[in-house]
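hi! just following up on the protien thing from before. the input was this:
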Amino acid sequence: MESPMRTFCLTLLLLAAAPAAAAPADSGPAAGPAFTYADLADLALAAPVAAHVRVAAAIAVKDEQAPGLRPGFGRLYVEADVVALIRSAGPLPARLRYVVDLPRDAKGRTARLRKGTELLILGAPVGGRDGEVRLAAPDAQIPYTQAAAARLRAIVREASAAAPPPRITGVGKAFHVPGSLPGESETQIFLQTADRRPVSLTVLRRPGQTPQWAAALGEIVDDAAAPPAPETLLWYRLACSLPPRLPAQSLAEAEPGSGAAIEADYRLVLERLGPCTRNRRP
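and the predicted 3d structure came back as:
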């Protein structure tokens, strides 16, 4: 039989988490393909809390006590022990509490979370309620694997650096300068960022050589600039934010006749970056 204190805490947590539970997103930890780097980055960058936890208890919530519950899902109240704290702005207790919506099977039974199940959760603390967490999205509870945890730690580590790559909001002006030799040229494309820090792309072409490109974080592009490695925060910022085509306004100040060359170099950058693959359903 549940204690009055647990029932009271459960009621408070359900009321606090209702808006998040109603948001559209993928379902529970066993649903769908494995999360990609971009999936994890989407969640991690929006969540002030990331933790590796072990389920201590998972209690089914009656539908009438689960506001915003989506059709085909059931809600669980979860108590989980922190195995490792990956990210947090402040201290957290050793046991966390949250609610999560998991899919029901064909017989209407909600997926279960067994005691001892290890998970990665991403969310935010509920103000004034020690140990309560609101998930960053309804699918922000992920099955724990060493690979997923390593990816998540790498994302958090880069995002917590003194000057992480900024969020890309658009493409600015682009310029193309032919070289002194046939087939030699340099294209520079300036990007717009959320905090107005400079980011630019440079493509160099030399006769008989493979075109080279680089991304620079700063006003000056030097020889140290290079393409970002895959599955890094700069790669994610570019691959998942750059539009598929160069905006027409980016060519407004380019030299007449250079538009085709600039567009070709922009396509080269996108091809070298590769696709931003996401498995989470919107």
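Residues 4-21 form the longest helix (18 residues).
The radius of gyration is 24 Å.
cheers
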